[in-house]
Amino acid sequence: MKRSRIYNGLAALILAGSLASCESDYLQVDPVTDLGTNIIADDVAGAKVALNGLCRAMYDGYTVGSNQNIGETYVNTVFNDSFGPDYFGNLTSNYFSNTNYNWGAMTTTNTWYTQVLWMYPYNLINQANQIIVAVGPETNGSQAEKDFVVAQALTIRAHAYIKLLQFYAPRWEDSNNGETYVCVIRTVPSTENVALSKMKDVLQLIYDDLDKAISLYDASAGQNRSFKWAPDKSVAQGLYARAALIKHDWAKAQTMAHDARQKYTLRTAEQSLMGFVEPTDDDMWCSSNDEASIVGYWSWGVHFACNGRYTQTWQRGTGSINIDLYRQLDPNDIRRDWFLTPDKIDAAVGYNPQLAGFGFTEDDFWKTTSVNASTMRFNGNMLMLSAYYSMMQFDEMSERMDTSDWYMPYLANTDTGVAICSNFFGSQYKFWGKGGYTACSYPYMRACEMVLAEAEAAYMAGDETTAKSCLKELNSQRIAPYNCTASGQALLDEIRLTRRIELWGEGQNWSDFKRWNLPMVRRAWIANDPTSGNCPVVNAVNIQPSEKDGWRWGLSRTESDYNPEVKPEMFLQ
To answer: Directed axis angle between helix 488-502 and helix 509-516, to 10°?
Structure first.
């Protein structure tokens, strides 16, 4: 009974307080946490509780300055998507000044967002280290149970270091074969001062962790994760593929991506239009549907699902596609249905024929009477058209799923009963939520990502046959008819285009463009010019791969101010 109470207390500690921190204490190990480490070492049941807390920390809430952040989903959406070219986040742009949203302060060192990008992975690393170090021969429990929980901790530690490389490392081709200093390696739960490590050494740690994790998963045959928000062998293999892509280790990336997805089934066309509310056989790793019960107001779906509880309250949208990406899609691609774009007028009029009397045309999307030039929010009659389009999308979703407790997308009733709409040029209908806090299952990793990683790695390794086969396997579920006939650069372009649209809004965009060595381009919306973009003029940019220190975020002073072994000048070499 006493031990049970301790386990429950440890769970509460990890869930509620493990990420609450500020500056110098973000790696602090206090006596209560030390007691937790002792419990982990004593019995595998304690290690399992700690592992559960570590997984929950990926979407638990914590505060940096005055900003509330929700781990993985927040970092993926606010930074990796919103700072990329294919996703314009009117909501997330409000977190920053226009200058900062245009990467103006990316290389600064003392802002809250550089702290988030540094603190989030290191909190995961510190918690994972407690499990990895504590579980040993003296820990009570079967060897298979111990092997499995250590493998899971190693997997998440590797994931955290991959995150650090994405934001703080140069591209592999710019790293002098990995000689560039990038971040601190910590493999024990400690606040000991440690110097910066080189990119090649961080990659070696990731490879070693994942090799060991895969070996332990194999040794613990019969042990299985209970929920998809915890990692398993397939997730370790998928992370290996991500790390290998960063390193341009094409053979390893191709093998690991292929192996990672073997027990999964790619999302079908129908499943792709079901809002990512519930996990499917395509989801390898995802947040829990009970996320909202833990973080409530700050759950990802509240703000970023198209029918999020606060989407209407804040009236800032949930993310819009770059029209220049949309224009490249095949006319038969079902992923076009994810977005409100000029070609949707006929669908809205078909849903409510009375709209035909307004004579809408695609050119209306570039009129000042229809679109607010500073936000891309619809005005006037276009707001009415978009409201009916939302109603149509909701009705279609209701035919697929039970939507009885869902909010309407971008549409709500005021206290007076008058309907109000908050919709934007390019608004997404890919992600939906259910219930009071619009809970949804945000994907951390999908089999669809792995088939695209396999395609890219195969192409780069000179295996166009496999690359084409992978593309056909996925795109035949999205485009009818589909046949991949491209070769050479055109084939690589098609792989990249497919990745950009399939994984839109899933936290891949900025880091993909970085490793592809391609510029970041958002084109401005220009009144009466339907060939222009759909981004406010103040946020239109063209950032070349060589700018912003090669797309490296500034080394956070959260580390350098309190760790004298870290020399910022080494980071900038």
So the answer is: 160
- The dihedrals phi and psi of 286, each to the nearest 5 degrees, come to -155, 165
Alpha-carbon span 311 to 301, nearest angstrom: 9
| φ, ψ for residue 153, nearest 5 deg | -65, -40
Cβ contacts of residue 63 below 8 Å, gap of 6+?
20, 22, 69
Length of the chain measured in residues: 573
**Residue 95 structure tokens:** 């977190």
291-315: per-residue pLDDT in tens? 545 566 678 888 899 998 877 777 7
The residues facing 286 across adjacent strands are 443
Q: Is 72 exposed, middle or buried (0-12, 13-18, 19+ CB in 10 A)?
A: buried
Interatomic CA distance for residues 323 and 371, integer angstroms: 14
For tokens 């070693």, the residue is 208
Residue 393 one-letter amino acid: Q
End-to-end CA separation in angstroms for the chain:
56
3-class secondary structure, 318? coil
pLDDT in tens, 470-511: 999 999 999 999 999 999 999 999 999 999 999 999 999 999
Helix axes 250-260, 447-460, angle to 10 degrees: 150
What pairs with residue 43 in β-bridges? 140
**Per the confidence metrics, is the pTM higher than 0.70?**
yes
Degrees to nearest 5, angle at CA 121 with 225 and 558: 155
Distance CA 378, CA 380 (A): 7
β 411-413/320-321 pair status: unpaired
Q: Compute CA distances 33 → 130, 229, 295, 411, whole Å.
A: 9, 23, 22, 45
> How big is the CA angle at 75 (ends 553 and 278), to the nearest 5 degrees?
155
- Asked if residue 31 has a cis previous peptide bond (ω within 30° of 0), the answer is no
Is 539:522 a contact under the CB 8 Å cutoff? yes
Instruction: Report how far residue 228's alpha carbon sits from residue 58's, in angstroms, rounded to the nearest whole number.
Output: 13
Give the residue among 275, 263, 268, 148 at the shortest CA–CA distance from 213: 148
Q: What would the DSSP string read from start to end of 96-151?
A: S-HHHHTTTTTT-SSSHHHHHHHHHHHHHHHHHHHHHHH-STTSBS-HHHHHHHHH
